[in-house]
Amino acid sequence: MLGNVVILLVSWLLLHFVLKQNLSALGWSPVLLRLKQLFCGFALMVLLCGLVYVVRWWISGTEWQLAEGANWGQWPEVAYWHLRSVLFEELIFRGALLVIAIQFLGARWALLISAAVFGVYHWFSYGILGQWIPMLFVFLGTGLTGWVWAFAFHKSGSLALPIGLHFGWNFISNVFAQGPVAAGVFVSESTKHMSEWGLLLHSVVGMFMAPLLTYVVLRFLFFRDKSVSTKS
């Protein structure tokens, strides 16, 4: 949590000295609207993340079972860990630097640069540097996701929506897979051998389906009215 406090301080300094603004540029108010966006982002990503797993189950013929001895009491701690890490990444990639980039470069280039840096960042966080095929997939998948979340920030005028989206994806993904601080709630076993094309489709769905669907929902449902970020 100390790291997030430091990032907030640095963000304030950057906004103050570069744009003569303060942390309100990250969109903390009106509070009711921002809480609504946070919850909607979380709920949307839970729904889409679940849909992604259903499609991947169908492709791979996977059977899921409740993990033996699943420790439900650990999940508040898991939620706190994911929320802390999400805040860290959002403040860096969709925070003050993105606000400044939009002001100087325009939204199109700012969002693209933010997305590219987010993709490169995951080479290091996933520990895949030097593995060229995984690097390509991770760059495209996390880069696209980063672009969609940057788009959500730009259109809503707040970090609330991308935080909700990011937190929803990370938390629900941990339910189905080993996470940094806890094992998943479910264990899986594939019931059929996949071809190379099947494996590719399985990977593509996992990487690209959720961000693409998220963009469609945001673009055509959330932001049909461009004044959405200012209405409570």
Structure description:
This protein has eight helices and two strands. By secondary structure, the chain is mostly helical. The longest helix has 30 residues, at 31-60.
Q: Which SSEs are present, and which pair or pack?
A:
Blueprint: H1 2-19, H2 31-60, E1 62-66, H3 75-93, H4 96-105, H5 107-125, H6 132-156, H7 160-176, E2 186-190, H8 196-222
Antiparallel strand pairs: 1-2
Helix pairs in contact: 1-3, 1-4, 2-7, 2-8, 3-7, 4-5, 5-6, 6-7, 6-8
What is the gist of this entry?
Helices cover 71% and strands 4% of the residues. With 232 residues, it is mostly helical. Helix 2 (31-60) packs parallel to helix 7, helix 6 (132-156) packs antiparallel against helix 7 and helix 6 (132-156) runs parallel beside helix 8.
Q: What is the terminal separation in angstroms?
A: 30 Å
Shape: globular
Number of strands: 2
Strand content: under 5%
Order of helices and strands: HHEHHHHHEH
Helices and strands: which structural class?
Answer: mainly alpha
Number of helices: 8
> Nearest-angstrom radius of gyration?
18 Å
Strand order of the largest sheet: 1-2
Q: Residue share in helices?
A: over 70%
**Which residues sit in consecutive blocks of at least 5 with pLDDT less than 50?**
227-232
**Sheet with the most strands?**
2 strands, antiparallel
Summarize model confidence as the mean pLDDT: 86
